[in-house]
Every structure is written in C-alpha cells, then in structure tokens.
C-alpha cells in the first residue's frame, strides 16, 4: 500500500498523468529506479521527494540487506564488493585509486603519493550509499551508489576556517591528521552529510559537508567535540537515524590526571540536522564495572566497549573478558 500522505505535485510525462506516473514508478525496484531518475527533471523531483521515498521503502522493504566489503586482490588492486548475507557477490567495483603530488611553497614537487600498497576502509553506515577512505592517506574519501555505480569524491581540502586557524598558529595544514569520517542522512530533508573528525596535536576538530549526486559541496568548520572522543577504524562510533555517536575517551583523561573526569561509557552525539554536539550518560552498570570487579581495570574496560546499531537502535556492547557480552539499548 502506498503512503497515505499527499502525493507531491509532478508534471505529466507525455500522455501519462502524474498520478499514474507515481504509481508506475512506485512499483519499480530501486536499482532500476536510480537509472530512471535521469530521464527528466520531473522524474528526478518525484523520485527524490520524501513522501515518494517513504512509500517506495514500504513497498520494497522485503529486499534483503547487502554488505559492502573492501578488499585487495593478489595483484594489489583495490576493489569494493557488494555481497548478500549468504556471501554471494552481487557486484564488484574496482577503485580508481589516487595519485597526489605534494609541492613546496615554490610550487616544486617534493613528494608523490599513490594508492599502490594502500588499503580501502569502509565507513560504518546503514544507507543506500557507502562511504570509503584509504588507510594510509586518510584524506581521500569517496561515496559509492551501489545501485548505479556512480561515485562522488569528497574534497580533500580542509575548511577555510580550519586552514585560517592553523595559519594563525603558524602550523601547516598537513599537521592535521584525519581520524574518521561518518556519513548519514537528515530525516527531515533527506540530505546526505558527512562528518569528519581530525586531530591537531592533543586537540580534535570537527568539519561537516552536505552533498548529493550532483554536488559534493565543501567542508565547513563546526564546534569541537566535547572532550576527547574515540574515533579511528575501531567500532567506537556508529550512525543511527541522522545522529553520529562516539564513545568518549575516558581512559586517556584518567591516565593524564589520575582522576575519572569522564564517566566510563559516556557517549558524544552529533546531530546531522542541527549540526550540534551533545553528551549521553552510559549505563550505570558500565560506569561501576571497575569498582565492582577487582580483576578489571579502566584500560581493560576501554577495550571492552564498542557501539553498534541494531534494528534502528543505538546499542552499547560490553564484551566482558571475551566470555560474555552485554548489550545496552
């Protein structure tokens, strides 16, 4: 059954009325629908409308989920495979790789970087788009549409505000080390956004970008994360319904000060719609775990915690000594 909300206005295509066009496109699988978006502006507007997307998802919700897997073959060629849960490969997308030339102030080439020997890493998300970056040269992020095969390369440059901050401090932008990049979709507008967290010395900075399949936008400087957050490739962050959640790094602060100033299991959250940070308290049982278990230390607890998404819910995972596992919703 289609959505009960009013259908968006759309111009007719030839002799086909708008209502009939709506019903026809509603029945087309997502893979083919992505190609049909390029037919004309009215078809693109209709298939991009939030009401249409919601109705299409309700009709085609039985489609099994797919996994995006990055791999490198024996010839050191990096590729991306789209696989079903059974392990059958549905599609393969070879990577174009990268080649970047670093120059000095005089414009002379001083170093050449290529993707040979580098490895692709998949950013954790649950969308119809998949985000990847490289392990060694982490500035290179790109987004893949598995249905159409189209890719978008996000800008490798930093935001103008961040570059200015570095110049004021007499620092080169290459001192800024990118730690993680997460993508998500704003529920109200259906916009895609990517959040990038970088490290400058002992400080973390945050940038965001809004993009679509026609425009990859530019990075914008946002407020720094609250305290220090766990990022990198470990399962310490996850995206759920337009919110990016990070475990807060309570252990590093404890090592520096000798005092627990951040409660274990605390979570920093970034709202992709409002582009603001917030903080959530972790489960009380996690906060008290070290005090109640003599064989556990804060360093061990830090390694035992991770975040996940399960059926649209944020989940904190506590892997206790690799023997048992607690899931906190």
TrEMBL record:
Q: Which domain of life, per UniProt? A: Eukaryota
List residues of the F-box domain: 10-55
Record-given protein name: F-box domain-containing protein
Organism, per UniProt? Aegilops tauschii subsp. strangulata
């Amino acid at each position: 059954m289609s959505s009960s909300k009013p259908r968006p206005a759309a111009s007719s295509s030839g002799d086909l009325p708008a209502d009939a066009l709506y019903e026809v496109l509603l029945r087309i699988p997502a893979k083919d629908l992505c190609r049909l978006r390029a037919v004309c502006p009215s078809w693109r507007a209709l298939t991009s409308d939030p009401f249409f997307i919601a109705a299409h998802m309700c009709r085609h919700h039985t489609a099994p989920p797919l996994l995006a897997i990055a791999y490198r073959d024996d010839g050191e060629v990096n590729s991306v495979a789209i696989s079903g849960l059974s392990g059958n490969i549905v599609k393969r997308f070879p990577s174009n790789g990268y080649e970047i030339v670093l120059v000095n102030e005089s414009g002379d080439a001083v170093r050449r970087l290529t993707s040979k020997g580098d490895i692709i890493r998949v950013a954790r998300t649950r969308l119809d788009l998949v985000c990847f970056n490289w392990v060694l040269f982490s500035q290179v992020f790109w987004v893949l549409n598995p249905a159409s095969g189209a890719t978008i390369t996000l800008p490798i440059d930093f935001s103008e505000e961040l570059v200015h901050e570095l110049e004021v401090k007499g620092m080169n932008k290459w001192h800024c080390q990118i730690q993680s990049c997460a993508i998500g979709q704003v529920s109200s507008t259906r916009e895609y956004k990517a959040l990038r967290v970088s490290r400058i010395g002992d400080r973390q900075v945050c940038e965001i970008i809004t993009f679509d399949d026609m425009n990859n936008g530019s990075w914008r400087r946002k407020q720094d994360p609250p305290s220090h957050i766990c990022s990198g490739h470990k399962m310490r962050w996850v995206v759920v319904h337009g919110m990016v959640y990070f475990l807060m790094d309570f252990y590093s602060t404890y090592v520096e000060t000798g005092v627990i100033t951040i409660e274990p299991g605390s979570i920093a959250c970034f709202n992709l719609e409002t582009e603001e940070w917030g903080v959530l308290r972790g489960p009380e049982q996690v906060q008290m775990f070290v005090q109640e278990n003599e064989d556990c230390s804060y360093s061990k607890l830090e390694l035992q915690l991770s975040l996940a998404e399960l059926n649209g819910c944020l989940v904190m995972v506590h892997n206790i000594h690799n023997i048992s596992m607690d899931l906190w919703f």
